[in-house]
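Meet my pick.
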Amino acid sequence: MINVTKSAKEALRKLLNAQIDMPQGRLRLMDRGQGKLGLGIDIEMPGDKLVKHEGATVLVVERELAQNLKGVTLDAEGAELVISYQS
C-alpha cells in the first residue's frame, strides 16, 4: 500500500473539501498507464484500500493497485502532491 504522509493527507482533505460536494464522493488514486498515477473523483467501492485523516477518508485506492504501490510515498510540498519511489 502507498505510504501517505501527514502533510499529504492534510492536502488531500483540503482538496476533497474544496472540490467535492457530494457526501459519498472520494478522491481516488488511479493508474493512468505508462507508469503514471492520477487523482479522480469517485465513490468508495468494496475492496478499496482507504487512507484516513482525522477519521475521514481522504483517498481510496483499488486493491490491486494498492498492492503494487509498496515502497511508494505520496507527500505534499507546498501546493503540490509529490510521489516518490523507494529503491
